[in-house]
Please model this.
Amino acid sequence: MSWLKILGAVIVGGLLLTVGILLGHFAIPKGGNGPGVPSWVQTVARDLNESLLQSFMDQVESGKIRENLKALASEPHMATTKGDEELVKLLLSRWQDPQIGLDSASEDVYGAFLSFPDPQRPNSVAVVENSSQIFSTRRSEKNVTADQAHADVVQPYAAYAPPGNPRGRLVYANQGKRDDYQELVDRGINLNGTIAITRYGGAGRADKAVIGAEFGVAGVVVYTDPADINDGRASEEETYPNSWYLPPSGVERGSYNGYFGDLLTPYYPAKEFTYRIKESEIQGIPPIPTQPIGFEDAQTLICNLSGPEAPASWQGSLGCSYHVGPGFRTGGLFPNTSDVQVNVYNQRIIKNSSNVMGFIRGSEEPDRYVLYGNHRDSWVHGAIDPSSGTAVMLEITRVLGKMLKEGKWRPRRSIIFGSWGAEEFGLIGSTEYTEEFYSKLRERSVAYINVDISVFANATLRAQGTPPAQSVIFAAAKQVQTPASSSVSVYDNWRNHFNRISPSYGVIPNLGSLGAGSDYASFIHYLGITSMDIAYTYDRNKTSARIYPAYHTAFDTFDYADRFIDPGFTSHQAVARTAGNVLLRLADSLVLPLNVSDYGEKLDELYSTAAQEDFLANLNANNLSLDPLKAAIGRFKSVAADFNQQITKLKKEESPSPLQIRMVNDQIMLLERAFLNPQAFPNKYYYSHVIWASKSSAQATFPGLADAYTSALETGDWDQVQKHLTIVVQAVESAASTLEAVA
Model:
């Protein structure tokens, strides 16, 4: 009878299994949205909520941004000063507010190597005859408005310039570029022991002194020419407070530092325990005393120079014909035997500087970070640089914090806000942050949004970024209306002002490239994180100013911003809406809204320069071929197109696999990292991105290849050209591999 029991048990088991399958098939709702399905199944596939996105933009108030800026720019807040410390407290209080705050906020402190003038011994530039001083430059700017005056306004100086009192005959060296100094030498002028006066622009601040020292120059004076900043206007009646133009006494301060990050701790966070190099080992700072002055003082010096007339391209708007010297002319304001003396008493010191970090934890993917940053420190009141950006960030966090605290929203991915310290001295706060959290940020960061100066002027959007960021910035800009007209989008207005013809899309706004001018530098060059910088700017058809005229001067005040940069603060509001829109898209979209295919156009553009006749002929003459690079770019474009098709199919699925979504997003996130090569530029701190590294060559191709090619034309060393061709090919192939199917 045992076999009957076994048979019965098998039949009963089969019936139970059949009933279970039928119940499972008919009882569980299809589509994964039924009441019996776990909540995580429903939320894990949550996509961007467009109505919530619109609600965010509707809540952004121009009046709140104006209030923020008035508070932020009420007093000077140079890094580590009392004003800076007060703003640290302000940000912490806002981000920890129980009604509108974030999940959490913290203060991260670094021991930054900084440079300050001696308050007891002001710097100056003087004209001396024998032992007598017969002229000296202003020690501070003229007060023209009530909100400009403050006891903590720092005297004009060149940060990191060494102390000293060199004296010599004055020469005019245009922008202080290498070819400018060489022009003087070619004219038979002996530069040894001279003092060179140069104008801002052309070369980096530090380079004017570094290069000058190579030619024997003993000291450097730097000024802002009204031709470069004021559209030629130079009189008090034509300048602030009567217009936005820089007054004659205005002096542009700045960091004379060719690198970014703390100078004593490259690649390591500047903590108390950190190894520091010797001060004598620092590179990229002036080896000779350097001092900035206003253009009214520059006029007194330049308009009395002797020697040949300067080239036409060197002339400016000081109201005289510029001569190159050396020394002063006979019959001028000074005896022709007079010298110029540069008196610098700067002090270098390690001081604690803080980053203020704000956090919103993601609900579905808390280990994926969208970062948004702006630096906090200024040179003086800093209404535009950087407080316009901080005012916008505080309004974005107010609205998001309110939505968060009311339980109306939590992002899919975590959001990290950074208020960076000591940016003006060389992007120190943001760089130290990327050094301290190097591994975590490389593994988990989706993108970095930078809003430094949010409004240069009120004409149009200006955005910079790596190619994948183009699509998300465009999408956001199309949803925001311009301040001037509710019928015109920020996108259309931007396209009208700055555009290019894209082989893929036709006429589109021109997305600029990122250099190393703000806090995105370490994120893109060192970590390989997709980055962007967003601002409003001026109409290039109406001004040729290289930047807003009060930049880094004592005239960058709330009054200046309120009356001349953005009356009504509607451009600030447009930037907040656009940048906030980008932030929410990156934080909440199921599939990251970064288009990998857009890198193809940039690769084609850089390749086309190398494929031009002279460039290509020189390569071929030295047995070098571009064929492997052409093939690698072709492969990348093909793989990227296939990858986008895969995403399209995935989005059409009713219930896409969470693991498949995660895998695709990781490929998008890691694409930028594929272009990194830490060995590519051994002589450049932090630069490892093969596409975006700095270069000195004028060749508009891949930076390493461009510099190697230009050098080879002079030295005949074509091995370095082959090396950098290899580096580029490997990087493009790696990028293609990143987008290919995992298995």
User: Anything to note?
Assistant: Residues 21-33 have pLDDT under 50 and may be disordered.
